[in-house]
Amino acid sequence: MYRALKKRIYTIKIVSIIMVSKRGIGPVAGLVIFMLIIASLTVAVYTLSPKLVSMLTRHTPNTIFNIYTSQEDVIIEHKGGDSIPYSDLRVKLANKAINLSNSDYVVILDTSGNSSTFDVMDKIIIKCCKILGSVNKTVKLEIIYVPSSVILVTSTVNTLCVAKLSQGESPETAEVIVNSGFEKGIIGWNISATHKRATVKVVNSSVEGETINILGVKVNNTPHSGNSYLVMGYREYREDGHAGEHEIVKINITLTIPKDAKTLSFWFRLQGWDSKIKNADAYDYFKILINGKDIDYINQLTLDNYTGLVVDKYGIGRDNTFLPWGHYWDSGWRKATINISQYAGKTIDFAIVMRFFSDNIARTWLCLDDFSIK
Ligand SMILES: [Ca+2]
Ligand SMILES: [Ca+2]
Question: How many domains does the chain have?
């Protein structure tokens, strides 16, 4: 079509020049006539080809995005401005281009169900785990408008950060909550145990019930918040191994501590039949390790309620002088706050270790929920 049009333009140009020179019109008047012919031709082309018109008048959309992460997902919300066909959008995450029509990588959810355009109030959910192969990464995200190759927005997101980030805001300036309440499982944490019979699992109390029966005791099974919490220790089984062995159950995670962070806190609950002897590495208690070393439990740790607990250089357990082993006790949910200001801006290995004196009589377990870095 273009070739035909071009040919026509040239033909008309030549004819007009011949006509102009034959009739003896001056060069200025000739140019005016020529420009008029070109203008009328352009109008004709516009009338003939609506597709061409749309191509020529298409502009880069003015769109407001809200980008934030929820555990392993990056969520892009359309908050206002123009609708955009999905086919015109491309997301680049950690230098990997993601075609939004490729359902293997991107799940597109929108409020209307089957819309083919990214409209106001719609969401794009990117499954980072699937794309990156793992979680806990800080990645650069770009949203590109394909027809004009314009980057509509650039954002840095952390795939483990569930804080709500506004456009352009980095995780460093928002509250970082590490897989905060185990509502989506144990994603992001590593688990290790000296014996496989130890329980390390996420409990969903709406499935298991608010109380469960263990050795004839009605054990409270409610999370600190939401439906789920993590339990680690000997709850379903008796402590394994031979008497006197030290059993270990450990969870750990790699964390990049924001530059302005001061504390890491979490909620814990001790339940079971065993205790800790004061100032002795004896019986059942838990430890908090940063980079493989015990924190300074006396100077670095604050508990909202010390009642019934002993805290010394070995860790935190039920005080044997408060209630000796052999009696069931439930500490209820308590908050632990650790001063982590010395690790601000650094990457650390954070671990919680439940340590048992394996007597096969007095089992103990630790419940965890709602981790937070501020
Ligand atoms: Ca929870
Ligand atoms: Ca024990």
Answer: 3
